[in-house]
Design brief:
The protein is α/β, with parallel strands linked by helices and 449 residues long. It contains 15 helices and 15 strands.
Length: 449
């Protein structure tokens, strides 16, 4: 994979020969080389000026998930931060899934704390196109508790309420919290397990992570850090800003909306996140949290950007038409009509995305073979034989043809790796291949072996 080693100068470089699956190997190689200590670098590695995070933009959720799974196998040592998109449609009446928002806020909080953290951030086109709470707000809205220090229970509960946490009888998913006397259970965003705070008066006596199902302790900790669980925060300042923006945008009649009434009372309302710009004095983008990150881009991302904006514009148009019809007929009360904000308030136009990427080091992956040249390199990856004809035919000798193909590759000096869904499937495949003349198979549970 040395073909992928290039000076990380600003500008775009097309990386051909990077079919799906192989791009994970290239990313792992890139991240490992770029983040290696200077003392451990070779002559080629010295050409890497990049230090810090790498942002990969996948074209959709399926590609992002597949990449994450592949990296967990081939490079489990690489720290990965996931930044998924909301799972609801633009201008929807429902809020995004709390687990998704939890992952988003955990990633933003981590990057706000250290924007040069050596890691791989995996986002999607939809996620990269959506504006997010400003970095300074996320950074300023963290809560930290230390064992042995004072812990104001009322202050903690107020923090949980305004930042999207939900009170429950027992914590089951990120964003839940429960109170039982002097014990407070909290499930922070992005955490593998919830935390239990044991208070003695106004002192945090002990803290531990525990399994939500068994309630058994996972580990004792000395410090607890919480980040907002919601992108629409209900601080006093945010509520007043929302009220002002809503009235200025939609007129005095907007004050009759259930949404307006709920937020005015400091209560959360289903779907309120779609008016996110009203809760902040400004919105940032994921790129503001990653000012110096190398950006790698999935195949067909440009097409995905166009399709995403078509969806956004289409849903916005329908909401506007419904609002205009309602105002003309006066057939619905103001509170029953959806009042959409301007799309560019919440989403990045394609032109702004181009501007945000300008001046960065960008690597665009393509599965197609590309002759090396200015701004183009070839990573050498090619789609392998898929045996589709043999699998379609009942008469074809599928396993014998597979065995012949493997033996031919090995005779040509190539190392062949076969992956199975389980150990049982691996053992059965090894037996079948051995019966068809493939000798010297070695079993392993780790990619690096």
């Amino acid at each position: 994979m040395t073909q992928s080693v290039r000076p990380l100068e600003a500008g775009e470089v097309k990386v051909g020969g990077a079919p799906e699956g192989y791009d994970a190997l290239l990313l792992a190689d890139l991240v490992a080389r770029a983040q290696a200590p200077v003392s451990e670098r070779g002559p080629e590695d010295d050409r890497f000026a990049h230090r810090g995070p790498v942002l990969h933009i996948a074209r959709d959720d399926q590609r992002a998930a597949a990449l994450g799974e592949a990296l967990s196998v081939i490079a489990p040592e690489i720290p990965i931060l996931r930044f998924p998109a909301w799972d609801c449609l633009p201008y929807d009446r429902v809020s995004p899934n709390p687990a998704i928002v939890s992952d988003r806020m955990a990633t933003l909080a981590t990057l706000a704390e250290d924007p040069r953290l050596p890691c791989l951030v995996i986002a999607t086109v939809n996620a990269a196109l959506q504006r997010v709470p400003p970095l300074r707000t996320v950074y300023g809205e963290s809560w930290v508790g230390a064992v042995g220090a004072r812990c104001d229970t009322e202050e903690l509960l107020a923090y949980l309420g305004r930042n999207g946490y939900r009170r429950a009888s027992t914590v089951a998913e990120p964003g839940d919290f429960a109170i039982r006397g002097g014990v407070i259970d909290i499930y922070p965003p992005g955490a593998g397990d919830p935390v239990r705070l044991d208070l003695f008066g106004d002192t945090l006596e002990s803290a531990r992570r525990f399994d939500a199902e068994s309630q058994r302790t996972v580990e004792k900790i000395d410090r607890v850090e919480l980040a907002p669980i919601s992108e629409a925060m209900l601080t006093d300042e945010a509520v007043q800003r929302f009220r002002r923006c809503y009235r200025e945008t939609f007129g005095a009649s907007g004050a009759q909306d259930p949404l307006y009434a709920a937020v005015s009372d400091g209560a959360r309302f289903q779907g309120m996140e779609h008016w996110l710009p009203f809760f902040h004095d400004r919105l940032d983008t994921l790129f503001d949290y990653l000012p110096r990150a190398l950006v790698t881009v999935d195949h067909q991302v440009d097409d995905a950007v166009v399709k995403r904006w078509e969806t956004i514009a289409d849903h916005h148009r329908h909401r506007v038409e419904a609002l205009e019809e309602s105002e003309a007929s006066r057939g619905l009360r103001a509170g029953q009509v959806y009042k959409p904000i301007d799309p560019e308030m919440l989403y990045l136009p394609a032109e702004e995305l181009t501007t945000r990427l300008a001046g960065r080091a960008i690597r665009r992956f393509s599965p197609h073979q590309s002759p090396p040249g200015p701004g183009v390199i070839d990573a050498g990856g090619r789609m392998g034989r898929d045996f589709i004809e043999e699998r379609r035919s009942e008469e074809a000798r599928l396993f014998q043809n597979l065995a012949d193909h493997l033996n031919a590759l090995r005779s040509a000096g190539k190392t062949v790796a076969l992956a199975s869904f389980s150990e049982g499937a691996r053992d059965r495949l090894a037996t079948v291949l051995a019966d068809h003349g493939v000798a010297g198979l070695a079993m392993t549970d780790r990619w690096r072996e």
